[in-house]
Amino acid sequence: MTTAPMPEFPAGFRWGVSTSAYQIEGATTADGRGPSIWDTFAHTPGRIADGSTGDEACDHYHRHAEDVALLAGLGVSAYRFSIAWPRVQPTGVGPANPAGLDFYERLVDELLGHGVDPVATLFHWDLPQALEDAGGWLDRDTAHRFAEYADLVAARLGDRVKLWITLNEPFVHMSLGHGTGEHAPGRTLLFDALPVAHHQLLGHGLAVDALRARGNGPVAIANNYSPVRLAGDSDADRAAGAAYDALHNRLFTDPLLGLGYPEGMSFDPGVVRDGDLDVIAAPLDVLGVNYYHPTGVRAAEEGSPLPFEIVPLAGYPRTAFDWPVVPDGLRELLVQLRDRYSAALPPIQVTESGCAYDDEPDANGRVDDPERIAYLDGHLRAVRAAMDEGVEVTGYFVWSLLDNWEWAEGFTKRFGLVHVDYASQRRTPKSSYAWFRDRIARP
Questions:
Q1: What keywords tag this UniProt record (predicted)?
Q2: So which residues are the catalytic ones?
């Protein structure tokens, strides 16, 4: 961590933290909630690193008032959470489940009572299992079901939510959930998963229309981005880098901003229909940017089913997830987005930025995490540097408020500013919590 003074951020800059429903809520059978694809996946032997599930997670469902008090103590101006689709619509169709919406209404009102803006993500990967059984995101009908769900949530909460985020990381849900099978629903389709991309984007556009029809807004999407670092300088390496960039970074951005799909990205006949791209390109108020690290890429070996090979980036510190720590990659990414999309690019908010380390209390119960402090310090400096280069960035959300159930890694990875003892559910703010609180309090 540099000793140089932290640069200032403008008044009104949105300081926040992020979470997601399945990772923290627990109470998976409470209030009529139906099963999601992650319930099914987590309960399938061999899918989760430690054999755990999100059945209890951080028990946020019952402890949300305690967690909102932690947010208030942190001094954030916004809290990004996700709404569990199967808690609102247990089977993904039909009328809203009032008891499920009651929980989110309690949460939203608790946030507002503490001066924290609710930022609600409508889909953070927990598709109702009944919709998956009917085809899931491979089926075009799911996009229309998503818009109906968005309308139900907006009808109840739209007068109080300060920013809607339709989808979280659709690239990751497509690639890990449907391409390689590491995430729910566990499909291994490789490039045959591309319809999932289009149907998620179509669902996004239809949901934007539904939200705005009720007068709700502003509206965003949260994409995961990763700058490409070539591991070689051959023409084949450059072609591989361009292919990966198109898949990871441009597939879920070009069509949002009215540019259609990247060249060479082809869909089977009938997937993309007349008028779809106009729906997808509904104007955004904010582009959410989730950044963790760049990706090393080189040309694939002959006979590979993919046009690129992912390679580790050497020479950087690494997190407990074995991800390289490259703060300047965030500056690089933000500038690249500005240069690539110019006037079509809406204001950016960094909707996820964080790191996993093996944080445990010491003999006195204190949880020191200097690596996380250094990580956040470096990434905030990268944001400020991008702003100094003319990129309009209006907010920064740390992933995450709490240590949580980390998808296929179960409880083995800790991202939180607050340590959670999963056996007792005791919350202990880490030293990074105090650091971020003090950072927010400064100009």
A1: Carbohydrate metabolism, Cellulose degradation, Glycosidase, Hydrolase, Polysaccharide degradation
A2: 169, 352
